[in-house]
Every structure is written in C-alpha cells, then in structure tokens.
Write a structure and sequence with these properties.
binds zinc ion, 4 strands, OB fold (Dihydrolipoamide Acetyltransferase, E2P), alpha+beta, globular, 83 residues
C-alpha cells in the first residue's frame, strides 16, 4: 500500500529556479538539490503561472513539499553540460 501523500507531504524546500525537461514540461529546482515537476495539465493540475516567466519568477522562494527528501534520495547531480 502506498502512503497517502496528504499524510506524508515531504520536506519543505524553496524553489530556486526552473527548467524544462525534454518534453517541455516545467521542472522546479529546489534548494535541497532535488527537482519537482510543476505541470500545467488541467483539470488535474492547474498551474497557469508556470506558463509565463513573470508567473514563474513570482514562485521563486515558495516552498514545495519535497518527497525525495522525505524518501532520503540523494540530490540530483547536475553536470556542467546541463546548465
Ligand atoms: Zn529534496
């Protein structure tokens, strides 16, 4: 049985930047070194702010619940070519 994410929300970590994955989905880069998808995919996930640069900038510093920290995963390694 999977843990209900509402009861295991993860560790709060601030958004420090954004990038897009190879499919064009937006990914938030967190202060902890992990990343988290922030899709705008209505009606399931509604984040119209992610589609504009000003909207994304307004989310910098906002904390997301990092489930990778909760699960004890090591931070995502970013190579010099990935910048
Ligand atoms: Zn994390």
């Amino acid at each position: 049985m999977r843990p209900d994410p509402r009861f295991a929300p993860g560790v709060p970590s601030a958004i420090v930047g954004f990038r897009q994955d190879e499919e064009g989905h937006w990914v938030a880069e967190l202060a902890c070194g992990h990343t988290q998808h922030v899709r705008h995919d209505p009606p399931w996930q509604v984040r119209p702010w992610v589609l504009t640069e000003s909207g994304r900038r307004a989310q910098l510093g906002v904390e997301l619940a990092c489930t990778r920290c909760r699960d004890g995963e090591p931070p995502t390694v970013r190579g010099p070519a990935g910048a």
